[in-house]
Amino acid sequence: MAKPLMAKATAVWLVDNTTISFKQIADFVGMHELEVQGIADGDVAAGVKGFDPIANNQLTQDEIDAAQNNPLHKLKLKFNAAAAGEEKRRGPRYTPLSKRQDRPNSILWLVKFHPELSDGQIAKLVGTTKPTIQSIRERTHWNIANMQPIDPVALGLCKQSELDAIVQKAAAKKAAEGGVMSDDERRKLVSTEQSLEMDAAPKIPTAIEGLETFSLSDEPVEEKDDEPVIDADSFFNLPKGGAEDEDEEDLRP
Description:
single chain; 253 residues; mainly alpha
């Protein structure tokens, strides 16, 4: 149910100028009945000026009369044709001035870690324009050298649920097109909650030389019986004899 503008000030006006019950006023303005009673007692909304709902085209006098005559009657907000479809208005998301400087970093993060998202989806998610996204994709942005990829959720530009929903939508579109996804693309298309529950993938060492027996499994490697046992003397190939032989050779004329 839609609520009136300036709910508390409207409740103050209804308490001061009508005999409507606290329950009816509370249901209309979206407040608790005890809070409305506190307004009548002067404990709540002290100093708040009443907001006339009739003069501001939110209630009619007939609706107020009906509520005063019937305690069970529920006040209905006056229909405003100009406000129809206001909640479904489409357009770019509004970004506060304090966070607009962080928007390119969030775009760079989305382009890097979620390349499956279209420019329109990114623009709607963080509130930017397609030319800006395209310049970051092509790395022609004027400040690309100083930009760092930062999660838009961490920057407060969008909610985690919104990011997960748009990623899942991209995954469904990719599956509907029948495209073959690589392992990296498949990991990128899952939501953050799912990725946190996955087991960590084993890391393959970058230097393979000398690691011929390296295995990703935890099973012990069986030793071969025919391999010779190498001790310290044979490994370093030390000459027989010790320091005494060398001293004797030095004393010979």
